[in-house]
Specification:
The complex is a heterotetramer of chains A (331), B (197), C (688) and D (187).
Chain A: E1 2-6, H1 17-30, E2 32-36, H2 47-51, H3 53-70, E3 76-79, H4 82-97, H5 99-110, E4 122-125, H6 126-134, H7 136-141, E5 151-155, H8 177-184, E6 188-189, H9 203-206, H10 208-224, E7 229-232, H11 235-243, H12 245-252, E8 260-262, H13 263-271, H14 288-293
Parallel strand pairs in A: 1-2, 1-3, 3-4, 5-6, 5-7, 7-8
Helix pairs in contact in A: 1-13, 3-4, 3-5, 4-5, 10-12
Chain C: E1 6-11, H1 15-18, H2 23-33, E2 39-45, H3 51-64, E3 68-73, H4 76-89, E4 97-101, H5 103-107, H6 113-132, E5 140-143, E6 148-151, H7 155-166, E7 171-174, E8 189-190, E9 195-196, H8 197-210, E10 214-217, E11 220-228, E12 231-238, H9 253-257, E13 261-263, E14 273-275, E15 277-278, E16 290-291, H10 297-301, H11 306-310, E17 323-329, E18 331-334, E19 339-340, E20 357-359, H12 360-367, E21 388-395, H13 410-424, E22 428-433, H14 443-452, E23 456-459, E24 462-466, E25 481-487, E26 492-498, E27 500-505, E28 507-508, H15 513-520, E29 547-549, H16 559-577, E30 581-584, E31 589-591, H17 601-605, E32 611-614, E33 618-621, H18 631-635, E34 641-643, H19 648-658, H20 668-676
Parallel strand pairs in C: 1-2, 1-3, 3-4, 6-7, 6-18, 7-10, 18-29, 20-27, 21-22, 21-27, 22-23
Antiparallel strand pairs in C: 5-30, 8-9, 11-12, 12-17, 13-14, 15-16, 19-28, 24-25, 25-26, 31-34, 32-33
Chain D: H1 13-17, E1 24-29, H2 33-42, E2 51-56, H3 64-72, E3 77-82, H4 93-110, E4 118-122, H5 128-145, H6 150-155, H7 157-161
Parallel strand pairs in D: 1-2, 1-3, 3-4
Helix pairs in contact in D: 2-5
The chains are: A alpha/beta (331), B mainly alpha (197), C alpha/beta (688), D alpha/beta (187).
Chain lengths: 331, 197, 688, 187
């Protein structure tokens, strides 16, 4: 059993409850124990930094300070939300790089009776824990119900591989690590060119035209590639593509129907958990039909299915030889 | 006096202000104006200036024009520009800095974006956590009342599927958090004051 | 009491030194505080290196009977030779002159005048105390071998080899590939004149191949270099060609009949094929083919031998083994060129994923009439002519994520590509650049010509190349590539649909450049390019005497510069060879037999095998092999080894000088304490 | 050596106001770090004037006696600079220097000289900026440590007896720096 400090983030008790529930369902088989930071506060999303950059970092620093104080025999702090992950990692990194910032943050923390030593907490995304620490082999070993036949888009979103301030990734735009994880569940993984493209973030709120354009781009590419559903590691991405898809469709007069599930839900399904226990059915764009095609029954009222666009097949290269891509590393 | 006049007398004043508002390094002065940021940006099409142009304007001291620009408000902080930038400029952080200067000086080009941030931050200061229902309700009523009919089914769906909680969570150490944020604000104000005006 | 009589000369170097260091104060301080240490005269002068400055020193040596000189000026790497020369002319042993740097290491790096002046005083004191311990030395004279090793058979190496060989001296030209010619042999046209690359290169290749003074070592590697200037010993590994070059006539039947066909990643840049036994191109020098065992059916499966059966002279030899030869040379020219940047590293450009994204080197082969498409510009399908082409500058260059430097040739190469596309096709051409750099002769005129031809020049670094549509109105472009870029002059993001993209890849040092540099004892910059002895005044010499560099081994440059470098390196070497012997710095270790205990610790420490021990004869240092590093001196437990020029006494004295009282912990009070205590050194020399 | 070293009681208020400026001896290799220092100069890169350089042909020439001599003669710190481990002009001699460095550092630590007072820096001939940065950092390190005061201890056993076992005052000691050892030159 590996234990980690855990920063769930606000959305896991709200719009991303399914993420929390499905994560809880797979912890035991994966041998992971998550110890929630006591009395953590919101990371500020992109909003606190907008009004007060130092305040935004101080807000995050409180969580780092709480994590450092709590300790629990580990210094690794896991965040399941990509935005929380980046905020936590960035504050720590900048405080390490710039001692002046570190001193300012500790000055602020002092007002709340806290202190944080930059670098004392290692912030990692939940996905990294699963692929690096648990490992794909261990995950594959727990698969009871392979997702064979399910065409899944590995949609990683922006903030797992970027800004990568600690240089842990070789590929900031087309990493294959999420593909490998989904493949280990038996799914058919779509080679998705937009795997780290932006979902629009808070643009659905402040500039809907921009937000809908970005959502459409993703959903359109996924549909063209004949995907059954998208998999995500981020509550923000899930929210935008799931909850705003209908409004996007109205905006463009389109009829896309592209479900998006948390990767933990797919892992749970592959491990054999019942869909209800994984929060499946709480998505707005229903995954019922897609899952039904591979024999997973989701007990929920069906929604009208939009006709999926025909899959586009890559042209087979002929003529001049192609450069080889070589043995690429996953990340 | 136009900002242009002021500029040529104090060419680096606004650059210094932006740098002071950017925690850690901004590297903005190393920009080679290649446009990788503007070419990469998913929302560049909806910006009045590209990020590169904003950096040139900062260097030129065009404070009024920069603060009036919607560019930083259209930044989604996806960091695509940041990993591609050949000069490793911390572009999203500079955008945050400009937004904070603009919101403080009351020159926001579009009240919607800053108000969303203010509502969000207000919830944090009130509860220590974000409060999705409260945020959405206040925000849509104030800025997008016409979107409400369209968005209502989604909202209802979210509620019936148990994805929106109506009771905000208040953290226990709220007083401590507020003290930290107040102290941070004071330090930030002192930093600002230290920049030669 | 007699002791050394030292003169101190403080240079202003205009304001370079005097602008920061109070030179008059240093002069006075030296006379006053170092008088007890033998300083009999101290002067300052605006430019010590001028002939008047040097005459000042010569006159003092003659008139004041100086027997030691300290010049406080620039780095010894700049003017040590100058001032030693002045001393020599005045009859003083040149090695009794010490040049200490108060410019590079004081005035140019410090701003506080008081602190800099105090440090300059300390540096002068270090020099004075050090030079007192110096003894007269004579340079080591060594004979110089007339042959030269040229590593790399591209245009730079060929140029160097031909200059040397034409002057009548032997040359060993080592090339890793089966043929000399380098990258230039791959090109179609050369900018800005659009000469056919092969037409101007092949005559020089043939000259090199036929020259009686040039020994070609192709398909070979330099595996070891030992010795020193004048007498390098070089081991060269000849990889087996599996062809007996004494019998082969170069008729090409083997190549024609070989059934194995593989992609040629080297000469054809991966867009063409070659056989299992092949010559990379028809004009290859030497004319003999090479059999590639990795792709030979006989080596793979044990049967075939078609080449052997059909060779009219029986030249195929499957039993050939690697062979090593050793050559003795006096000088070395490193001309190992560059490797193209691996475009796959820029993920956003999709090279390797999108078939119609090409590199500039692939394009060179494609537009070459002798290349895989016969000179036709086509998409990866080998058939379709593009209707629109985007040329992307600075791929891997000017980017802190990859290479921070400008690759120098790509702007012109890209313009050439634009011209060639227009010449061969009807396509619309987009040229996407950050800055257009055309500083050579005829370069900007060529740029304007390409503009006149209707090329769309867009100032903006390409952000990404994609086939993903963004908006419903892009549906018509399905299947094409979209170049996404900010047009920085228009201030707008543009998405330009094209059929073909050419990536102008930057230049990188060969992947084993550092290894080669280590073998030669030279240094590379952090980018991996060879560092010149002086970037302006000695641009083809390296830090290691006798090792020169030419062409892109020194950094990205075009063909004319590479040719000029090769000739310049040859000229430097010819000047030395013609003198028959060399004078070397006499920095060597020697053993005091009386103190040597025979422990032999030093023997193993010397990487040059210069130290030997024999019973009865004791420990000996061979001055021809010793390079003067001094490790043995520091290690000898008995203190039996000493080193000329850098003896223990000299260095210990310099340490004392650098920490001279009054130059450290600069509080006036402390100075007074020292001066008032009983610790003032005894005067030893009579002040002037 | 019979010098009587001045002892406590010499700190005047004006002296105390002057910040401590350490003096650091830097040994350089002729082929890499000395040229890096030249390059820093040519490029006008600034670093504090507290570092004074000695040119050796190779960092492997660095005799431990040189380091001890520098400390004894008043240096507050010593820096050994040389080529990167695989870039030695003399093939592998800098690796020998490195081994010697580690041993010597241990000995110095036993003598009560903090590790920060004996540091190692790699700098190729192209790394003027890196060398200058390293010097800047080391000067700051040593400034924070304060003057090397072992000479007082050695000269005055009574004073040393009052010291804690590890023998060192922390930074910010009210003691003024001890004067250097006399530069008695033996002919």
């Amino acid at each position: 059993m590996s234990a980690y400090l855990f920063y769930p983030g606000c959305s896991l008790s709200g719009s991303a409850k399914a993420y929390a529930g499905s994560l809880a369902a797979i912890l035991d088989p994966l041998g992971i124990e998550l110890r929630e930071i006591e009395d953590w506060n919101c990371c500020g999303a992109s909003e606190y930094l907008t009004l007060s950059p130092l305040g935004g970092h101080a807000l995050v620093a409180r969580n780092l300070a709480l994590a450092q104080r709590q300790g629990d025999g580990t210094r690794t702090l896991v965040a399941p939300c990509s935005l929380c992950y980046v905020n936590l990692a960035k504050t720590d990194r900048y405080a390490r790089d710039d001692p002046g910032l570190g001193a300012r943050l500790n000055d602020a923390l002092g007002a709340g009776g806290l202190t944080y030593e930059p670098g004392s907490i290692a912030v990692r995304h939940l996905l990294e824990i699963l692929v690096d620490d648990v490992g794909l082999e261990a995950i594959a070993a727990h698969v009871r119900r392979p997702l064979r036949g399910l065409r899944v888009v590995p949609y990683l979103g922006c903030l797992v591989t970027r800004p990568d301030l600690d240089r842990r990734w070789t590929h900031h735009e087309r990493p294959r690590v999420f593909d490998s994880l989904l493949a280990a569940l038996g799914a058919e993984v779509v080679d998705f060119p937009l795997r780290t493209a932006c979902c629009g973030g808070h643009m659905t709120q402040i500039s809907p035209d921009t937000g809908f354009t970005l959502i459409r781009r993703l959903v359109d590419a996924a549909s063209r590639l004949g995907a059954d559903l998208m998999a995500t590691v981020c509550p923000m991405c899930q929210m935008n593509i799931d909850a705003y898809q209908a409004e996007m469709n109205r905006h463009f007069g389109s009829h896309y129907h592209m479900p998006i599930l948390f990767f933990t839900q797919l892992i749970g399904l592959a491990f054999g958990s019942p869909p209800e226990a994984l929060g499946i059915g709480t998505e707005i764009v229903s995954a019922r039909a897609a899952l039904g095609r591979i024999g997973i029954e989701v007990p929920a009222p069906a929604e009208p299915e939009a006709a999926a666009a025909p899959a586009r097949r890559a042209k087979k290269p002929a003529g001049l030889p192609m450069p080889s891509l070589g043995d690429e590393d996953d990340r | 006096m136009t900002s242009g006049d002021r500029t040529e007398h104090r060419p680096d004043a606004f650059l210094a202000e932006v740098r002071a508002a950017t925690p850690a390094a901004s590297r903005i002065e190393t920009c080679i104006q290649c446009g990788t940021c503007g070419g990469s940006c998913p929302s560049a099409a909806d910006m009045d200036h590209t990020p590169r142009a904003i950096f040139a304007m900062v260097r030129a001291g065009l404070r009024d024009e920069v603060l009036a620009s919607d560019t930083p408000w259209m930044c989604v902080a996806c960091y695509l520009c940041a990993v591609r930038c050949p000069q490793e400029i911390h572009i999203p952080d500079v955008m945050y800095a400009i937004k904070s200067i603009a919101s403080r000086s009351g020159r926001v080009p579009d009240a919607v974006a800053v108000d969303f941030s203010r509502l969000f931050v207000g919830n944090i200061r009130r509860y220590g956590r974000s409060y999705e229902v409260g945020l959405a309700a206040r925000y849509y009523l104030r800025h997008h009342p016409l979107r409400l009919p369209g968005i209502a089914p989604m909202g209802i769906g979210m509620v019936t599927k148990g994805r929106l909680g109506f009771i905000p969570h208040r953290i226990e150490g709220l007083d401590g958090l507020r003290a930290i944020l107040a102290r941070a604000a004071a330090i930030e104000a002192a930093d600002r004051a230290a920049v030669p005006a | 009491m007699t002791g050394p009589r030292v003169g101190v000369y403080v240079c202003h170097c205009g304001t370079n030194i005097a602008g920061v260091v109070d030179v008059a104060a240093v002069r006075d301080w030296a006379l006053e505080r170092l008088g007890p240490h033998g300083v009999v005269v101290a002067r300052d002068y605006p430019f010590m290196c001028s002939s008047l400055g040097q005459e000042l020193i010569e006159k003092d040596i003659a008139e004041l009977g100086l027997d030691r000189v300290v010049v406080a000026a620039c780095s010894p790497h700049m003017h040590e030779r100058t001032f030693r020369g002045a001393c020599g002319r005045a009859g003083l042993n040149p090695y009794l002159c010490e040049l200490v740097s108060i410019r590079e290491q004081v005035s140019w790096v410090h701003t506080d005048r008081d602190a800099a002046t105090r440090k300059a005083e300390a540096v002068v004191a270090g020099g004075v105390l050090r030079v007192r311990e110096q003894v007269p030395l004579e340079p080591l004279r060594v004979p110089i071998a007339p042959a030269t090793l040229v590593i790399g058979g591209g245009i730079a190496g060929i140029s160097a080899a031909l200059e040397l060989a034409d002057a009548g001296y032997p040359v060993h030209l080592v090339e890793r590939q089966p043929s000399i010619g380098g990258h230039m042999a791959q090109f179609d046209k050369t900018f800005p004149t659009l000469d056919c690359a092969a037409c101007i290169l092949t005559p020089r290749m043939v000259d090199a191949g036929m020259h009686p003074n040039i020994t070609l070592h192709t398909w070979s590697e330099v595996v070891d270099v030992s010795g020193h200037v004048g007498a390098f010993s070089v081991r060269i590994l000849h990889r087996p060609r599996y062809v007996d070059t004494d019998l082969c006539t170069g008729c090409g039947i083997c190549e024609e009949k070989c059934p194995a066909k593989v992609v040629d990643p080297v000469f054809e840049s991966g867009i063409g094929y070659r056989k299992g036994i092949y010559r990379p191109f028809p004009q290859a020098v030497p004319k003999y083919p090479v059999l590639d065992p990795e792709h030979c059916i006989y080596f793979e499966r044990g049967t075939c031998r078609a080449c052997e059966k059909l060779c009219p002279t029986g030249a195929i030899d499957f039993e050939q083994q690697p062979e090593e030869v050793t050559v003795e040379v006096g000088n070395i020219v490193l001309a190992t060129g560059f490797e193209p940047f691996d475009a796959r590293r820029v993920e956003a450009y999709g090279y390797g994923r999108y078939p119609n994204v090409f590199t500039s080197l692939e394009f060179e082969r494609m537009s070459n009439a002798a290349g895989p498409t016969g000179g036709r510009i086509v998409l990866r399908d080998g058939q379709t002519e593009p209707r629109s082409v985007a040329i992307v500058h600075c791929v891997g260059s000017r980017d802190r994520n990859f290479n921070p430097y400008c690759s120098a040739i790509c702007c012109m190469q890209s313009l050439k590509v634009a011209h060639l596309v227009r010449e061969h096709t009807e396509a619309t051409v987009y040229e996407l650049y950050i800055d257009m750099r055309t500083p050579g002769k005829g370069f900007d005129e060529f740029y304007q010509r390409v503009q006149d031809e209707g090329t769309h020049l867009i100032r903006g670094r390409v952000a990404e190349i994609t086939d993903v549509l963004r908006l419903p109105d892009e549906a018509g472009e399905d299947g094409r590539l979209i170049v996404q870029v900010e047009d920085t002059l228009a201030g707008r993001q543009r998405r330009i649909p094209v059929d073909m993209v050419v990536l102008s890849v930057g230049l990188e040092p060969p992947s084993d450049a550092r290894e080669m540099a280590r073998r030669l004892g030279i240094t590379c910059s952090s980018d991996g390019w060879v560092i010149e002895r002086h970037p302006k005044l000695d641009p083809v010499a390296t830090m290691t005497d006798g090792v020169f560099a030419a062409g892109c081994a020194l950094g990205p440059r075009d063909i004319p510069s590479s040719v000029a470098n090769g000739a310049a390196a040859a000229a430097r070497i010819l000047g030395r060879i013609s003198q028959g012997e060399l004078a070397l710095e006499p920095i060597r270790a020697s053993v005091d037999e009386a103190r040597c205990s025979g422990c032999r610790i030093c023997n193993d420490l010397c990487p040059f095998g210069a130290i030997s021990f024999e019973r009865g004869r004791g420990t000996e240092v061979d001055p021809a092999l010793c390079q003067g590093c001094g490790v043995c001196i520091a290690a000898c437990p008995a203190g039996a080894i000493s080193g000329t020029g850098f003896s223990d006494a000299q260095i210990l004295a310099q340490i004392e000088g650098l920490l001279f009282p009054g130059t450290i912990h600069p509080e006036a009070g402390l100075d007074a304490v020292v001066a008032g205590s009983a610790t003032t050194p005894e005067p030893e020399a009579v002040p002037a | 050596m019979t010098a009587t070293l001045p002892t406590a009681g010499r700190t005047s208020p004006t002296e105390a106001a002057v910040p401590f400026e350490p003096v650091i001896i830097g040994f350089t290799c002729n082929w890499c770090s000395y040229r890096a220092a030249d390059l820093a100069g040519t490029a006008r890169i600034k670093y504090p004037p507290n570092v004074r350089l000695i040119r050796l042909m190779c960092s492997g020439r660095l005799d431990p006696a040189f380091v001890l001599k520098a400390f004894a003669a008043g240096a507050d710190a010593v820096v050994m600079t040389g080529c990167w481990p695989e870039d030695c002009h003399y093939r592998v001699q800098n690796v020998k220097a490195l081994r010697r460095f580690e041993l010597l550092r241990r000995v110095l630590t036993d003598l009560g000289i903090e590790p920060a007072r004996f540091q190692r820096v790699y700098a190729s001939a192209a790394e003027g900026q890196q060398l200058a940065d390293a010097f800047t950092r080391i000067v700051a390190d040593v400034r924070a440590l304060g003057p090397l005061d072992w000479r007082v201890d050695l000269a005055d056993p009574a004073a040393a007896a009052d010291e804690p076992v590890d023998g060192h005052e922390p930074a910010g000691t009210p003691e003024a720096p001890a004067p250097p050892e006399p530069a008695a030159v033996t002919a």
